[in-house]
Amino acid sequence: xxxxxxxxxxxxxxxxxxxxxxxxxxxxxxxxxxxxxxxxxxxxxxxxxxxxxxxxxxxxxxxxxxxxxxxxxxxxxxxxxxxxxxxxxxxxxxxxxxxxxxxxxxxxxxxxxxxxxxxxxxxxxxxxxxxxxxxxxxxxxxxxxxxxxxxxxxxxxxxxxxxxxxxxxxxxxxxxxxxxxxxxxxxxxxxxxxxxxxxxxxxxxxxxxxxxxxxxxxxxxxxxxxxxxxxxxxxxxxxxxxxxxxxxxxxxxxxxxxxxxxxxxxxxx
Length: 269
Known about the structure:
By secondary structure, the chain is mainly beta. The chain has one domain (47-264): Porin. It has one helix at 2-25, and strands at 45-65, 71-94, 99-120, 125-148, 151-164, 167-171, 178-183, 186-200, 207-218, 221-224, 226-227, 246-264. Strands 1-2-3-4-5-8-9-12 form an 8-stranded antiparallel β-barrel. A hairpin with a 6-residue loop joins strand 8 (186-200) and strand 9.
């Protein structure tokens, strides 16, 4: 029995000695400095943008005789579509951890065009001309919600103007000859609403991509067809006059989708 006790004591002594030597051989735990906290980015600041997209419009047209008031065409609808290029500038303010408000303005150059049919009251025939929306601009405000620190969803609204070029009328049937009649250029006033998102790109600080859809409703405008050249309905002496007393009344709605690159001047400050 005494031999067993002595054996156990000897094993315990060896274990204690070995553990002490192992602990002595271990290097001291190195001190590592805690990483610095990641600075929170702010969406407060100003930006510029540029890009392109696609648009289409629908125009509701009524026409009447200016003298008698008799309606010649009621609720005739035609459409246009085409490319657009746009540029903008704005400023944002981050009001809380998740919310951003801002103001902006942008201009758009476009070729949103299509054939528009029209009847001239005097001859009572159908004619067609190619209408084109060539520019527009908008100014408004937006409200955004941050899904993440680098991803913003938003809605916007404001005031807009759009311009359509003058165009000539030609016959739809027969020889398709030019009539000499033209529909004058017009500038429309309206309002718009839109929605989109903006996302930070990784390879350049301050660079974002923005994609937006927008709808614009414009006020009704009246125009008078006039003779701008000699044609089948306009004699040489009629240039600059309105021989048939036609009032063309148009109301336009335009829808656009565009993608832009955005550069934020203060990003990462």
